[in-house]
Amino acid sequence: MRPDLSAIHTARVETIATAELAIETSGEGFFEITHEAARFLERINARDGALLLFIRHTSGSLVVQENADPDVRTDLVTALKRLAPANAGWVHEAEGPDDMPAHIKSMLNGISLHVPVAGGV
Predict the structure, then answer these.
(1) By the 8 A CB rule, do 115 and 50 touch?
(2) Which of 28, 74, 96, 112 would be 54's cystine partner, CB 3.0–4.6 Å?
(3) Distance between CA 62 and CA 31 in Å, rounded?
């Protein structure tokens, strides 16, 4: 096998833009933020680069997943509940029985994403 590296494109960093997105949630589950991220890229006239998404909450996480079939989200919630069930004898329950499972899910899924941006999308 011979690796084949594509052409290399370089660019000067001309703009770094930041914004904060606040989303009220109704508890456990997946919440779509694709449209908000795309709107941010549009508002800053993004071209090529990377979008960094970061969540500050210690019991939330960010994932890239399919959203065409809602069954995917249902199955993902089911899988995460199996990996970190509520009422499993956790010591930390300061904010309720779902608090420690949420911390574990956050650790498994991650709190940041780098999304490549090409041509503004």
Answers:
(1) yes
(2) 112
(3) 9
Q: Between vectors from CA 106 to CA 100 and to CA 109, what angle results, nearest 5°?
A: 140
Please answer whether residues 29 and 43 qualify as being in contact, where contact means their C-beta atoms are separated by less than 8 angstroms: no
Q: Please give the chain's pLDDT, 121 residues, in tens.
A: 788 888 887 777 777 899 999 988 888 889 999 999 999 999 999 988 899 999 998 889 999 998 899 999 999 999 999 999 998 999 998 888 889 999 999 999 999 999 999 988 8
The 10 Å Cβ neighbour count of residue 62 is: 15
77 DSSP assignment: H
Q: How much is the pTM?
A: 0.80
Is residue 112 a contact partner of residue 60, using CB atoms and an 8 Å limit? Answer: no
